[in-house]
Amino acid sequence: MRTILLFIGILVIPFIGVSQNTDEQILKIRAEFQRINSNHQLEKMDLYNEEFMEYTTDGGGQLTGYFENGQLVKYIEWIGVSHGSIVIAYYLKEGKLFFAYEQENKFKSVYDASGEWMSFDTSLQPETIFEGRYYFNNSRLIKELKKGERMFNRVFEQSKFLEHAHVMSNTLRKKR
Predict the structure, then answer these.
(1) 16, 75, 102, 120: which has the fewest C-beta neighbours closer than 10 Å?
(2) What is 102-131 written as a DSSP string?
(3) What is the DSSP letter of 28?
């Protein structure tokens, strides 16, 4: 019995260390996130529609970059779509993505008397239907937190997400 418990202990101990290391990294990420968001002296720059989008959506788009001492530290990509909007905030340290927050918002659907869908009510604020928090360390996803369901069940693909983030950050740096 002792041998079995010792064997189980040997197997579990490395995972405890990894979990603690990830928790420490996330605490550092949150501290840097809060530091950036509390800095009201950041230089702001906006790009609209075709200034950063290959294809303009029906609701348009906006890319807002925030610079600290000439370095891009945060940018927000807002994409308007017919059903609402998709907003992703990216946070960088030393040019590397360390955190991203994604939100999908949907307008309320309008139905006729028979219950058939007619349109979206754009007179009201859209409802947040999905939130994603992505924590990175050295361009590697270390934790993903999701709440809700995306409208079209898009799947998070780390390589495509990082590639898109790189393109958007380069676009902001070049236009500055």
Answers:
(1) 16
(2) EEEEEPEEEE-TTS-EEEEETTSPPEEEEE
(3) H
Contacts 24+ apart (CB under 8 A), 161-169: 161/100, 161/134, 162/97, 162/136, 165/90, 165/97, 165/100, 166/97, 168/52, 168/63, 168/75, 168/77, 168/90, 169/72, 169/75, 169/90, 169/92, 169/95, 169/97
Digit-by-digit pLDDT tens for the chain (176 residues) are 555 544 454 544 444 444 569 899 999 999 999 999 999 999 999 999 999 988 888 899 999 999 999 999 999 999 999 899 999 999 999 999 999 999 999 999 999 999 999 999 999 999 999 999 999 999 899 999 999 998 877 778 889 999 999 999 999 999 88
Burial (Cβ within 10 Å: 0-12, 13-18, ≥19) of residue 148: middle
Tokens representing 125?
A: 């604020």
Q: Are 158 and 141 in contact (CB under 8 A)?
A: yes
| Dihedral sign for Cα atoms in the order 162, 141, 133, 147 | positive
- Global pTM value: 0.84
